[in-house]
Design a protein that fits this description.
mainly alpha; MetI-like fold; transmembrane helix; transport; membrane; transmembrane; Protein lplB
Length: 287
């Protein structure tokens, strides 16, 4: 049963890894890997000395930290609240509604968000005007100060419900006798969550935290590409992935883009190893 997944990963994740060679070449599209001249670390030096480097790194790190700091605990809190609902039908309805956005593509989500924030009869602007909080419609997706909040909030709304399923499954595996014993000892619901639920699902939380730290430079691609269509947002929206896309596919600087992408991959592996080592001291780790 595992074999198809292993074959898929081998074909689409491991075989293409020879492509990192172009980061050390002046890659020529018609010359290929064997006829392109080797230039060593020229493109890495160009990337580090680029005036865009610090802007791209700042946006990548800030957006990733916002997603980690706000987006990571959100599904845990949702799972804890869903676990407290005793009406089974209501619980199923809330769970279905919360994880349904995960199955929508970012193109659809971006269209919905753009429509809601539109200055032309957008629901958000209409509500704010009715409440007299603003005097004229605001073009939210054209204001750099609002972009990080819109991006992170949309991502949390889209993925929070689906991620909560894993935590709900972990909570379901907790021995109910622990709650009964705690109730007999006088522990309320909040105390039971603090002393039983959270400690029992801590291994799952730690594993997801390790993966989240390892992906800290993966600030996003599809969501940013869809929401940041206005060029005025580039100073706050350009991250490593979108920068690689623009340099490689739009400007045809394949080797330069490959060097930037390889740098991100190396740093991500280092962060993953460091997070796993720290988690091992807490009793849970990936390896």
């Amino acid at each position: 049963m595992v074999l198809p997944a292993l074959v898929f990963i081998f074909i689409f994740s491991y075989l293409p890894m020879y492509g990192v060679l172009m980061a050390f070449q002046d890659y020529q599209l018609f010359g290929g890997f064997f006829n392109s001249p080797w230039v060593g670390t020229k493109h890495f030096a160009a990337f580090f000395s680029s005036p865009d480097f610090w802007t791209v790194m700042r946006n990548t790190i800030v957006i990733s930290l916002l997603k980690l700091g706000i987006g990571f605990p959100a599904p845990i809190l949702l799972a804890l609240m869903l676990n407290e609902i005793r009406a089974l039908l209501f619980k199923r309805i809330i769970q279905t509604v919360s994880y349904l956005p995960h199955f929508l593509s970012w193109v659809i989500v971006g269209g919905v968000v753009g429509s809601m924030l539109s200055t032309d009869n957008g629901s958000v602007n209409m509500l704010l005007l009715k409440l007299n909080l603003i005097h004229e419609p605001v073009s939210f997706l054209s204001v750099p100060e609002y972009f990080w909040g819109i991006l992170v909030g949309t991502g949390i709304w889209k993925e929070m419900g689906f991620a909560a399923i894993v935590y709900l499954a972990a909570i379901a595996g907790i021995d109910p006798h622990l709650y009964e014993a705690a109730a007999i000892d006088g522990a309320g619901r909040f105390k039971q969550i603090q002393l039983i639920t959270l400690p029992c699902i801590r291994p799952v939380i730690i594993i997801f935290m390790i993966l989240a730290v390892g992906n800290i430079l993966n600030a996003g691609f599809e969501d940013i590409l869809i929401l940041a269509t206005n060029p005025v947002l580039r100073d706050v929206s350009d991250v490593i992935d979108t920068y690689v896309y623009r340099m490689g596919f739009l400007n045809n600087r394949y080797s330069y883009a490959a060097a930037a992408g390889l740098f991100k991959a190396i740093v991500s592996v280092g962060l993953l190893a460091a997070a796993n080592r720290a988690a091992r001291k807490m009793g849970s780790s990936l390896w």
